[in-house]
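pasting for ref
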Amino acid sequence: MGEICRKVSKLCLLAVAAGIFFTAGGAAAQGTPGRMPAGTSVGGVDVSGLRLGEACAAVGEALRHELDGYTLTVRAGGRKYVFRPPEIGWRADIAGAAERALREGGAQPLEKERVFVREEAVLARICADVYRKSAPALALFDAEAETPFTFVRERVGQYVDGAALKEEIGEALRDGRREVRARLVRVTPARTLAKVRASASLLASYTTHYAESNAGRAHNVALAASRLNGRAIAPGEVLSFNACAGARTEGNGYRAAPVILEGKFVSGVGGGVCQVSTTLYNAALLAGLSVAEYHPHSLAVGYVPPSRDAMVNGSACDLKLRNATGFPVRIVARAEGGALTVRVYGQRSPVSYAIESEVVERIPPPDPQVSTEEGVALRTPKEGVRSVAYLVRREPGKPEVRTRLRRDSYAPVRGVVRPSVQEEGAA
């Protein structure tokens, strides 16, 4: 009751008999029995010749008849409440007026007013029926779903202004009006559907591609993506990619695949995980997150432009992202059909970001190695590059801001070839 009808002040009503309030007055005719003088009335009711008790009963009966057919309808929150006698009665000092009549005779006035017999209970019932608790809108997150967020609309609460309703009912009863409309107070939660949708907006998405034919590498990409999928980063928190992906060991589910080691492509457990960290790196920058730690590869990779990679290993090299947006963010990572996509969700912002990569110098590869050994794998020569990357910040109504992110140098790759026909003939 306290929560539901907090606007209602404490109501105190006198005990009632048959819907009529009798308020005691002074002593009747000095305590001696007698009858009302001729021509005596109380509240318009002729009581001539009646004893005191008979006069009170006659006036009470007249008041009861006066209420015949009277109803009061209270409308509140789409509900209708109809009250009639004996729920509605009179408050009147019949005994006091009758005693005056016995002493003085003549026409004695009777002050009276309609009242609810159990006003507190009536108001409490209306308040309880109409009360509806408010509930904020919700964003439900499922990292495995095709659409990761679903939304539940907020529920607007309501309650009756009990104090105002009490006053309105009192005035209606006094004036003889037959209908009252309760004033509803609506309570709108702070977290509306619009605000919750804005807090779960797609901030950025970045996709790289991999060859499904390399089964070990494809497996590692999918495994690391699954361990990144659904991660939340609180405001100010730093996310460690290595902590998400876990140790690159066979016991942790990873398989052997090509990795870059000391400027060469070799086989190693966990090959392909760097593509996941690199894809996350790009999505994070596009979403407005800051990079606390990154490392470039020694050789340029084919799935992103130069100066946009983020190499990781299980020991010294990690990718760490700081959420400086001021709001929580969620990461969704998918690897399927040869496409790896990382999406970042968070609070909608008018600011957008782009990454620009420039090659400032190309480094030719050294002369290829000529090998006639049967077990030596052939390798295509590849030039190295020196590159630079810029982060471009755009906001409506403001100048574009272009900030240098990094400079990198990627070594060339020396090719391994078989001797040409001329070379073999010359030998």
